[in-house]
Design goal:
41% helix, 159 residues, two-stranded antiparallel ribbon, 3% strand, mainly alpha, 4 helices
Length: 159
């Protein structure tokens, strides 16, 4: 039985969106994607985590991103996961072989803005003991909610 050289063949990729399809010569084994963690299957999430972790380590070393911005436990901080996932997707898009040459400078601009957001959000607040953040208690979405969503509220004035 012949085996495929595509490591993603047969995997459920429904949680990944590939803008413009697969890019030839993508620098990593995953095509340029936007990672939607909420929609990833367990199987594909494992592969995405591995690719992301490898990229984060490389990017932190390459771009001299300190542990005050991205701690080694970044994967335990949901905000950092989302920010780094977005950077990873942007890096793949900006360094696509089809880029006209402006991608690298665009990437550096995105990286600078992202580093500021990570510094602001993370604030070196890692306690080295990771616990799930306290969950919010959401009200029951009963009749008041049903009534609220049944109109557009486009012309609502006042509080």
């Amino acid at each position: 039985m012949p085996t495929s050289s595509d490591p993603l063949e047969g995997l459920d990729l429904s949680g990944l969106a590939t803008p413009g399809g697969d890019a030839p010569g993508a620098p990593l084994s995953l095509p340029p994607v936007t990672i939607n963690w909420r929609e990833l299957s367990d199987t594909i999430a494992i592969e995405v985590w591995k690719e992301l972790a490898s990229w984060v380590q490389w990017a932190c070393e390459r771009y001299d991103i300190t542990d005050k911005v991205v701690p080694v436990c970044w994967w335990q901080h949901s905000y950092l996961v989302e920010e780094l996932s977005a950077l990873f997707a942007a890096w793949m898009a900006f360094y696509d072989v089809a880029d006209t040459g402006t991608g690298p400078i665009g990437w550096l601009e995105k990286l600078a803005a992202s580093k500021m957001r990570m510094r602001d959000n993370y604030s070196q607040a890692c306690t080295r003991v990771h616990t799930d953040p306290a969950g919010r208690v959401w009200p029951d979405q009963g009749s008041e909610w049903a009534e609220w969503i049944s109109t557009t509220h486009a012309h609502r004035h006042g509080p």
